[in-house]
Specification:
With 361 residues, the protein is an alpha+beta fold. 18% of the residues lie in helices and 32% in strands. It contains 6 helices and 21 strands. It has helices at 5-18, 20-23, 226-234, 264-276, 294-314, 356-359, and strands at 26-27, 29-34, 42-48, 52-56, 69-78, 83-92, 94-99, 102-107, 114-122, 127-136, 140-148, 154-156, 159-161, 166-167, 173-175, 182-183, 206-207, 245-246, 280-286, 322-326, 348-354. Strands 1, 2, 3, 5, 7, 8, 10, 15 and 16 form a 9-stranded antiparallel sheet that branches. Strands 4, 6, 9, 11 and 14 form a 5-stranded antiparallel sheet that branches. Helix 3 packs across helix 4 (264-276). The longest helix has 21 residues, at 294-314. The protein is elongated. The protein starts with a helix and ends with a helix.
């Protein structure tokens, strides 16, 4: 016998009322990565399937060092049955494990890959908060979690022996809701004996669209001889190929891509230099401070690099010779709590690239 229409409405209502609490759940763990060994200089947060590391001087996540980094994984774990669980955590180097704020494993030292274990009684289908912390000092990075559950093996006089050790299944981990990858910039650099070694990232070069009928004007008093300005802007008469140089006088309106008047001296010098050496191309790299939203900072850095590119193109440099690269807040030169000390992070850099075809002409 099928329910009547009113009965169907009740069923549908109950389904929509109950299901969201399950559909919002997501399997996995929330992973946080830090570019130091003290879990302070946070770089990135994302959801991963499980807590796991196995590399040799390799970056575990975008923007994270291959050595001298730390990580934290948090999740909710569900016990498949009741009984005494033995957790085994293998790490190279430091490792810590908490279950519901109970510190089960604490081996926060430099060590070769070593397995530490501790047991705790869990109840079937009950959820427990889990946190794992890790640091790698150098070379190998290893982090693996497994357990022995209270079944299987050989029982005698109420004791169980030879229980199989298995990796904690991915289905046991869950987070409350999906979380996107978020890159964060550090707020402080902790003191440590060995400085973190940054990983060089390859970034794509994005060609800017051509500028049509765009004129950029500046006050007459800001115009100076390009030859005189070139010496001050580049600290010499020649600029090395592929050398990264900061445009020290190029500044922008706060939180905007609008050039301030004092920026034109250096830009005139660069334009004059490019005209003198037509076989050279230029890559312009924009940076911002690490305050605020990461995506907004990335967009602003791209807009500012484009503003410099537009100025050069409007002053006689062919658009096919000008490229831009946006770094956002990913490459700070100063990490400090004081706002005035971080001004150098809001900068534009450039690099000259030799065109091999024109150079040979």
């Amino acid at each position: 016998m099928y329910p009547n229409k009113s009965g169907l409405k009740v069923i549908v209502f109950l389904l929509f009322a109950i299901l969201p609490q399950y559909t919002n759940a997501q399997s996995g763990v929330v992973a946080e990565y830090f570019n130091d060994i003290e879990l302070k200089n946070e770089v990135l947060t994302r959801v991963e399937s499980k807590p796991y590391l196995n590399g040799y001087r390799s970056s575990p996540a975008p923007g994270v060092n291959g050595e001298y980094f730390s990580a934290r994984w948090t999740t909710v774990i569900t016990a498949p049955l009741s009984g005494d669980f033995l957790f085994l955590l293998r790490g190279d180097d430091g490792i810590r494990l908490w279950i519901d704020n109970t510190l089960l494993i604490d081996a926060w030292v430099e060590q070769e890959a070593t397995t530490h274990s501790s047991s705790i009684v869990l109840e079937k289908d009950k959820q427990y908060e889990m946190k794992i912390e890790y640091f790698n000092a150098k070379l190998h990075s290893v982090l693996m979690l497994s357990w022995e559950i209270p079944e299987g093996g050989f029982s005698f006089l109420g004791y169980t022996f030879f229980r199989p050790q298995t990796e904690v299944p991915v289905s046991a981990y869950s987070v409350d809701a999906p979380q996107p990858v978020v890159q964060k910039e550090p707020t402080a650099v902790p003191e440590q004996k060995v400085a973190a070694k940054p990983v060089t990232k390859k970034t794509s070069v994005v060609e800017t669209p051509p500028v049509k009928d765009k004129k950029i004007t500046k006050p007459e008093e800001d115009r100076i001889s390009p030859d005189d300005s070139l010496k001050n802007a580049t600290h010499g008469s020649m600029i090395a190929i592929n050398e990264l140089i900061t445009l020290k006088s190029v500044r922008f309106v706060l939180s905007k891509p609008e050039l301030l008047e004092g920026s034109y001296k250096e830009l005139d010098a660069i334009a004059a230099y490019l005209k003198k050496y037509p076989h050279l191309k230029i890559k312009i790299i924009g940076h911002t401070d690490y305050e605020g939203n990461w995506n907004a900072n990335y967009t602003l850095s791209k807009q500012r690099a484009n503003a410099v590119a537009d100025y050069l193109k409007a002053n006689g440099i062919a658009e096919q010779r000008v490229f831009v690269e946006a770094m956002g807040a990913s490459k700070p030169v100063v990490i400090d709590d004081k706002l005035q000390n971080r001004e150098g992070n809001r900068r534009v850099e450039f690099m000259l690239i030799e065109d091999p075809i024109k150079a040979g002409q």
